[in-house]
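Supplementary Note 3. Input sequence used for the single-chain structure prediction.
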Amino acid sequence: MEVRTLKRKWARAYWIFLWGIVLLGFLGATLPDGVKLLALAALVLCGAGMILSILKLRCPYCGKGAPRAPAFLPGSGKIQYCSVCGKPFVYDDEI
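The predicted structure, written as discrete structure tokens, is reproduced below.
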């Protein structure tokens, strides 16, 4: 049986965009008014990137489920399963 995998780069992108949203949220409150528009645009881009990474991390078998917190590094020891079809999420660097 063929094992379908998720790409680790999208799991890493998820965490990078999440931290970008958090940092830009805090930074946006302290910036002067002239730069806030730039911070808001970067915040919107990070939000769009996070949504894209969530869509790319769907279950490769059924296409509906997604990992709760995607693993940033290989070998975390936690195996997550799809809530819809019950198949494990396997990343491309774990094979």
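Residues 81 and 87 are 5 Å apart (CA to CA). The mean pLDDT is 88.
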